[in-house]
Amino acid sequence: MEEISIIGIDLAKNSFQAHGARADGSVAFRKKLSRGKLLSFLASQPRCVVAMEACASAHYWGREIRELGHEVRLVPPIYVKPFVKRQKNDAADAEAISEAAQRPTMHFVAVKTEAQQAQAMLFRTRDLLVRQRTQTINALRGHLAEFGVVAPQGTAQVERLAGVIDGGDSHLPEPVLELGRLLLGQIDELDEKICGVDKKLRVSARKDEETARLMTIPGIGPITALAIQAFAPPMETFRRGRHFSAWLGLVPRQHTTGGKPRLGRISKMGQRDLRRLLIIGAMAVVQQAIRRGETSDPWLARMLARKPRMLVAVALANRTARIAWALATKKESYRARAAA
User: Which of 72, 177, 297, 338 could form a disulfide linkage to 62, CB 3.0–4.6 angstroms apart?
Assistant: First the structure.
């Protein structure tokens, strides 16, 4: 009997489905395993390729399985779906994972370290707190608008609402004032938590040489630099900077047929957190150039002269991603291009 070449595992919370295949593609076994028996079963198997979908808990299992001596391959779920035969079930999914992982042109996801996942958790915790603060501010604005108190959007306008609630000459009913103070207290608590997380991010950014190098690029601050390290795979996996920007989803969507290229808006296929941060940073650079009326970047000046600012921001985010790839691979700092 030939040895097992690849094992596809359909991950779950407690019940796992394993599909073993030989080098010729024939089925070696189909086995259902509990969470506690998965690693002991893989330890008893000869060293081979273990493939999984890059979904929840995949990086944890990838690290554990790699310590057993197996080669781990994480396949994006969207690339597994075409290999599912007829009905969808755990056994069919495990077989599709093993089939997809054997394709020579398949793209795989790098297994993240514990430090990368901890950094990603720090970033996502801050993102959650910011969204909760925005939700609370919008709730306060909406409630007070029902009583004739209207304020513009933004965190900077909270002081105006607080002045109305804490003012002695307020015409608002007492229950409204009491609940308004409750929401203001919650906003203050979220502000303190966000400031604490920001302090941790800045300290972590100053300690790391790679992050400091990325922060020399206009439009990239400590949060974006740390997010690139946390969410992006090693830059060496991309052959060119344009491949990294395409992975982020910052390239036009293609619908080409018959040799006639048709390009649309950005594809939004990649890592949405990084894409959003790069576009926000690029928009900040664009707005600063518009306020000043000039910029030292000749490319940005030409783009602003003939294109809408949002389109320029997306193009600048694409350019920033390619610069970040170049700095990470060449181990250099950013050098601004002088105007002609």
Answer: 72
